[in-house]
């Protein structure tokens, strides 16, 4: 959106700067979309693992600072599921700041069975920069704009289906060159598949926790046995970091391996990877908000003024 200043008030799916968020939303609505906030209801998506108290602040920001007439708050996991027409399943999100595995049943998130991984797109971009600096110390890659690194990542990187085998066999590195402009270029070799690997092996970044496939399995394992097969039948991928070539195949293989390893061999998770999954939460939100049956689910400014922020938790939790 032209003229809208960039701000990053959210880290790993959690708001860390409310003042910056208010300024960003106001610029997006007024300067970007050119709408009057007082005239439009707003649907806000939030992270499945965001602190519940954050919804109080969101309501305060929307009703008191921006004076919107009504609002609704929904988990990105639920909206991602809705983008496929489902209201029950397992949402696997890998975006810019955080990854989540969230079971959803009948439109409600299973919070105690939700798992998160603080390795996602932004982390992978920084990791790619580090890999390239180590491989090409003669190039001034530290000064390369973040946007250029992101383009490199999106255009050149992929998920290996045999990481150790590919890593130790130079014949399987498939090098490519990427033009940086002004007559310079950078050559990527094993960096192409090493970049997204921390989503599957966080230990590559010094993190002790399990990778995303193990977290997805844990989420399935933690739901009641009577629902497990049904939720496993709709494992919806969402977020830009799921778009790496090979991501869906690798996740499917490792998730099935987790099921066999832990005695759930009869469980057959079915992954749903739509072409537009990078913006699945937005798509799901736009679909849900357009339904006639949804119109009674808004909290109005009058309701907020009468009941306060407690209403947010009663209606949306």
Automatic annotation (TrEMBL):
SMART domains: ACTIN
Pfam families associated with the record: Actin
Membrane-spanning parts: none
Family assignment from sequence similarity: Belongs to the actin family.
Protein's name according to its UniProt entry: Actin-like protein 10
UniProt organism field: Leptonychotes weddellii
Organism lineage: Eukaryota, Metazoa, Chordata, Craniata, Vertebrata
């Amino acid at each position: 959106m032209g003229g809208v200043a960039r701000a990053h008030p959210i880290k790993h799916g959690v708001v860390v700067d409310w003042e910056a968020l208010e300024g960003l939303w106001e610029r997006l609505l007024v300067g970007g979309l050119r709408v009057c906030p007082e005239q439009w209801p707003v649907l806000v998506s939030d992270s499945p693992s965001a602190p519940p108290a954050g919804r109080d602040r969101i309501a305060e920001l929307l009703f008191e600072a921006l004076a919107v007439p009504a609002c609704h708050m929904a988990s990105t996991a639920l909206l991602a599921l809705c983008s496929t027409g489902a209201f029950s399943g397992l949402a696997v999100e890998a975006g810019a700041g955080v990854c989540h595995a969230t079971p959803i049943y009948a439109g409600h998130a299973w919070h105690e069975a939700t798992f998160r991984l603080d390795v996602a797109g932004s982390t992978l971009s920084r990791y790619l920069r580090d890999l390239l600096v180590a491989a090409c110390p003669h190039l001034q890659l530290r000064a390369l704009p973040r946007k250029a690194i992101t383009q490199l990542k999106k255009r050149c990187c992929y998920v290996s289906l045999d990481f150790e085998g590919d890593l130790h066999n130079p014949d399987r590195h498939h090098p490519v060159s990427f033009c940086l402009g002004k007559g310079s270029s950078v050559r990527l070799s094993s960096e192409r598949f090493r970049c997204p690997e921390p989503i599957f092996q966080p230990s590559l970044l010094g993190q002790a926790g399990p990778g995303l496939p193990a977290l997805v399995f844990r989420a399935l394992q933690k739901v009641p046995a009577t629902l497990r097969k049904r939720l496993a039948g709709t494992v919806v991928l969402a977020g830009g970091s799921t778009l790496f070539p090979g991501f869906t195949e690798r996740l499917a293989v490792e998730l099935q391996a987790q099921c066999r390893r832990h005695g759930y061999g009869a469980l057959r998770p079915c992954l749903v990877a739509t072409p537009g999954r990078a913006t699945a939460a937005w798509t799901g939100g736009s679909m849900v908000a357009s339904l006639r049956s949804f119109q009674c689910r808004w909290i109005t400014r009058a309701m907020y003024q009468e009941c306060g922020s407690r209403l947010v938790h009663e209606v949306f939790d």
